[in-house]
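Justification of resources, computational component.

The compute hours requested in this renewal are based largely on the per-chain cost of generating structure records like the one below. Each record pairs the submitted sequence with a full structure-token output. That output is archived, and it is also reused by downstream analysis tasks.
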Amino acid sequence: MPEITSLCVYCASSPGSNDAITETTVALGTLLAERGIRLVYGGGAVGLMGLIADTVLEGGGEVTGIMPTGLFPKEVGHTSVTELIEVDSMHTRKRMMFERSDAFVALPGGFGTLEEVTEMLTWAQIGIHNKPIGFLNTDGYWDSLLSWFDRCEQDSLLKPENRGLYVEATNASEMLAALEAYEAETTTKWLDLDQS
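The structure output for this chain reads:
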């Protein structure tokens, strides 16, 4: 079972309109601060990104934000986090978030959130890592995506064993418990990221 000392959270740079999602974001941030787990995220000060960072900071926790220079005006770089790292590209951002995290969670979000978490799934599938990945399925937000995974498997486009590359939960405490209980069930030889 992995020890989680830092958690990468993917989420929206918009606040959204669903109170349940807002509450879950705050609950996860509060739990990370209470457990002494560092938040690693995209570095924004707005939307759900800003909300979870502020919650962790208000609880006395540590936050690492990583943001490409070009996104500073749009996502508004969070200058009050413990550590704000400015990088040259999205690729560098995602690589650094990966390297600094023990596990990954997707809160509800849009295109960026989906792209980032599915990249981690793909990397796990081809053997780049075996870190836990979770979908925080608040108010059934990820139901349609998880149903699509069912269809992929049904049509033999996704191997059944790869369905075990992620966990899901409906609230923050269940999510952390599921990540900590995760054990990779693959015999894939882990690849060097630089050689992938």
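Strands lie at 6-10, 38-41, 63-68, 83-87, 103-106, 133-136, 167-169. The first strand starts at residue 6 and ends at 10.
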